[in-house]
């Protein structure tokens, strides 16, 4: 019996493969599509990528790289998805991980055996037992639509941002984008630059629009382990001042003031939104009240006609292969209770990778989680008792509830440095 099964060969699955290989742990990795890269492979034939042709990552190339494999200096500071996929391919080839990955193979079922090992069943009906399973199937692929749906029926075209790939999809159309996360803003800006139809963003909370650049450097360079330790009120004050110095008040460009304090939402990064809004190419509306045919009525009782509504309303956390376990049926809430976001207290040999949404880059955190998992498997790191795990999960939950609005959007939120330090502590 091999020790480990890794489900998925995206950015976290491949770093898990490397961590296992480095520690001499035997493993298989199964990937639904025909190649590695997950969400970062544009038009991935696994059908799960939400990347669009124009997508550039919004964390800089230095902070997003794996610890021992820097991104090439000739890459732009905010690389395009084509750069990122090449980087992942080079990583897999450099560390010789490809032979352990079985492509075009979907894991359809994972069942715990009485001895705490797992039976993994593939879509070709083969089953194998493993001592451990690492779930790395990603959490940005199953579209979430508003629930309950807005009142009424839209007779134009409805799209979720997951299916937005090309600017042609919004050309010559009056477009309403729902939401103001990073998907919404990228799509609205792309539509606005075409100058072929009106572009409106409908948002119920708005967001603090953070530029990619500040004072000739990437904005995310400002975050560091020291600022992460400051009290939240001070972090908020510093960020408010910095945002003001960087771009003044966003309301002056036409982007509404958010109805919550800064740092209580996942950041929306854009160098372009304020400028395009200031030029009148993107307009803002509050939440949708009702839809009548092609007419959308907003909560301020204004109404407008649209050809297309794009719901950029986020994603569901879904594990299709764990359907027998109610603990992992979390689609509605995205609320999965895991110790350090990795281990369920009742399923200790099952690990979840990159099931986090960091303020910062995800790849280095997936890498360190994978190293921790390897240490647990090798017996070099001990996991606490069930009671201690439950206590820690509850404490983390309470902290998060204090800071973020209770929506499915923020259940996986972590601070990059605080979280990294907590996993490093576990490893010791
Ligand atoms: N360039 C890059 O690197 C990109 C990165 N990403 C990342 O992908 C992830 C997903 O981002 P994204 O797709 O934007 O999704 P998000 O979950 O981040 O944002 C969803 C948006 O939809 C709104 N929303 C959700 N439900 C409703 C509802 N029922 N009614 C009205 N509004 C609603 C939310 O508002 P509210 O806050 O009020 O709930 C929020 O503005 C994020 O981690 C993001 O950073 C995405 C695109 C580009």
From TrEMBL:
Belongs to the FMO family. It catalyses: NADPH + O2 + H(+) = H2O2 + NADP(+); hexan-3-one + NADPH + O2 + H(+) = propyl propanoate + NADP(+) + H2O; heptan-2-one + NADPH + O2 + H(+) = pentyl acetate + NADP(+) + H2O; (2E)-geranial + NADPH + O2 + H(+) = (1E)-2,6-dimethylhepta-1,5-dien-1-yl formate + NADP(+) + H2O. Its main location: membrane. Pfam families: FMO-like. Its EC number is 1.6.3.1. InterPro entries: FAD/NAD-bd_sf, Flavin_mOase, Flavin_mOase-like, Flavin_mOase_5, FMO-like. The keyword Endoplasmic reticulum applies. Keywords: Endoplasmic reticulum, FAD, Flavoprotein, Lipid metabolism, Membrane, Methylation, Microsome, NADP, Oxidoreductase, Phosphoprotein, Transmembrane, Transmembrane helix. This is Flavin-containing monooxygenase 5. One of its GO terms (molecular function) is ferredoxin-NADP+ reductase activity. It is an enzyme of class 1 (oxidoreductase). It is found in: Microsome membrane. Acts as a Baeyer-Villiger monooxygenase on a broad range of substrates. Catalyzes the insertion of an oxygen atom into a carbon-carbon bond adjacent to a carbonyl, which converts ketones to esters. Active on diverse carbonyl compounds, whereas soft nucleophiles are mostly non- or poorly reactive. In contrast with other forms of FMO it is non- or poorly active on 'classical' substrates such as drugs, pesticides, and dietary components containing soft nucleophilic heteroatoms. Able to oxidize drug molecules bearing a carbonyl group on an aliphatic chain, such as nabumetone and pentoxifylline. It comes from the Bacteria.
